[in-house]
Fold these 4 entries.
Entry 1:
Amino acid sequence: MFFTLLGMAVMGYHPSLEDDGIYLTAVKSRLNPALYPHNADFFRLQMQASLFDKCVAGFVHLTAIPLAATELLWQFLSIALILFACWTIARKLFPEARAQWAGVALVTAMFTLPVAGTALYLVDQHLHPRAMATGIILLAVSRIMQNEKWQAAPLLLLALLLHPLMAVMGVSFCVFLSVALLEPVHEWVQVWREAEHGSVAASFVPLGWIFMASTPAWQANLQAHSYMFFDRWEWYECLGAVAPLFLFWLLWWFARKRGENLLARFALAVILYGVFQLAAAMVLLNSPRLIRLVPLQPMRFLHLMYFFLMLVAGCLLGKYLLKKSVWRWAIFLVTINAGMLAAQRMQFTGSEHLELLGRNSANPWLEAFTWIRQNTPTDAYFALDPEYLAVPGEDYHSFRALAERSQLADNIKDAAVVTLVPELGEVWAQQVKAQGCDPVSRRCAGWNRFQLADFEQLKTEFGVDWVLVSYPAPAGLGCPWHNDVLAVCRIP
């Protein structure tokens, strides 16, 4: 309980942030089908492979707990599950209690650690099916280490239903872990060959719709997301991809030398998993014929490796450095948590660190979204800056998720959706072009120069009847609300 609360306090809580613009919007759509009569495919199609939105909406219907409270509760439970699973793994690897809790403490502090160049954190600052699936995968790992493989299978299936791509990585690691625990270990070769075909095939079944033919808009969007391509990572991001393999090799050598058999086998499993997944990723990312698989982001196998790296590093610190020294523990806990907290506060300068229930936000964008949700028709169709997510102070909060209204496609989050769902490419390109963006270069320069005639053109072409613009608004618009930064206006 303590580490769960500490983890949330350090990482912060920001519902509707980044990916939650898809997940939270999908849940709200299930709870109220009248929402989002326009452009709903930009969140619905990506959710076809997951039961996450159905589970959350079903929980709200069943318990009558408000959605905002449900999201906070599930975020808390997801973090608690992750930390419990980490502790159970640490208990098997290290008999010393101080080592176990040091491992949990380091994982707790490092929830918002970037995973090399994958554009992932260990845990997001909002409810995400990846966090839920990660907790379940880690629990399955602990079951295998307890020689209870039959308990791991249903857990991995549940993870697959929540987040198929991350679950495939978890299945892959569990295969290698099971092999590394075999006697004799050399039998892993045949099992690995079988796992190679099985895990790859499994990753495609829930996402078969992504194999539609690509379009020019899809190609442009894919190339704009450099984090999907390993050869475009910065040098330190590349180092972050290969360094864990070297560190786990050192751990394997160290553990074998000291006769710590289970720790050595665990390190071996991580090495085999990492080498296999890295080789598979290099094949996918460097084969033009397999370019449609690039959006699966095979380098995200590092996510699980980073969890193990933080857990084992913390355990080793607790065992060999912190020991029973109260002062060392105090310095350790304050340093790692204060550093990560400061980084989060610097990242989200325009938002409360904990965006909890019932708190009025001073963020002008969130203030505008709230007014729109409470005062505009459910079927209102909005246009706003196609790059509003990246505006300083907006902090990547989703309009759809918070305003609960339809909007024209944006040039950031919806563009990322297009990489997974090519059929939306032409719709996206048409809409962002109408808002002053070049869908090929991905540059936007026209929105701030829009006048009444431009907004009327959007209404004629797409049916947009409301806009969110900078205050003061262009002449001719009827604006029933504004703050110091934004105005909500109707197009006549």
Entry 2:
Amino acid sequence: MNDCTVMELQCLERARLDHLNRGEWIAQAERWHELARAQISWRHQKKPFQQAMHARPMATQPRQQS
């Protein structure tokens, strides 16, 4: 569980306990949820680039015949 998910759960717990400010806590939880999704999406976009960086140049080009 990442930090954003922990914060989301804490906000939801506060929303359950603090009836006067319930809407504010739910809004905060939604913000943390969206931030967590954005981080996950960014990590998935970054992976193919990192894998390409580790590929050897000769492995990605056709072999030249002399």
Entry 3:
Amino acid sequence: MIKFLGSNKIKTAVFISGTGSNLKSLIKFSFLKKSPIKIVLVISSNPKANGLNFSRKYRIKSKVYKFKDTIKDEIVILNYLKKNNINLICLAGFMKILSINFIKKFNGKILNIHPSLLPKYKGLKTHERAIKNNDKFSGCTVHFVNSKLDSGKIILKKRVKIAKNDDPKTLAKKILAQEHILYPKAILKIFTNL
């Protein structure tokens, strides 16, 4: 894993596909003195991703790759990450699955936040599944990315109570608010526990 040496912050890329609310919270966290990361790159799989507005606002370089040809796009992205000396990737609502080859190249240096209490509800429609199963709690999990979907080593989890009147939208909103707190905490945990 990467070492964090005081003032030398870890050059980080954030991968997004949508609203970018986790990107925004990670950018704000990166400005803190205690933060071990510096976000220097935003990669989006969606040219219309609202999160690209945050990269513009905070003057962070961004690139869009539509992943029409995953293998070709990944080679280009890997070269671009290398050129920018990226040492950590944070997936934040990134809706594409990275290949095993890509993950191997960044082994132990890719994090993801998932809107469920893993190992429960890997993949999509997590809120609908939790409500349908009458779960009392759901939540979010930050984990290392490995070759299996949402199966990497768990760093931190946060439980969120499911109210009787919650629907997938209200539950998603409650969990997202916790994601914004949990992701920075997980990053701090990794780099202070080295």
Entry 4:
Amino acid sequence: MYSEKVLDHFHHPRNVGEIQDATAAVEMTNPVCGDLMKLWVIVRGGKVSEAKFKTQGCIPAVACGSWLTEVMLGKSSAELATLTAQQIEAALDGLPPASRHASVLAADALKRLLAAIRE
């Protein structure tokens, strides 16, 4: 049902936790399924130097949050602004149709985070 990459990120999530003195922190909820994702980042020299997440939700939601924080490291806001839900899904070798909301949640949380960084 789930790809090996989804299961790996779910069973061994990367960058779980909170950052006390984050440059920006956001929370995003999917109103349909109730999944919740929180993201924290520290930006230094225009690039993400640290990223953490917490997710309450389905297996793909955890996997998307884990993958997202990995890919964010070392990237600028401009580089991250082009990341889409479809790219997140593809990077995890796909999601079942009923679980695609997880990649949308991660992409929306990223957009909100980038807006918070600009503020």
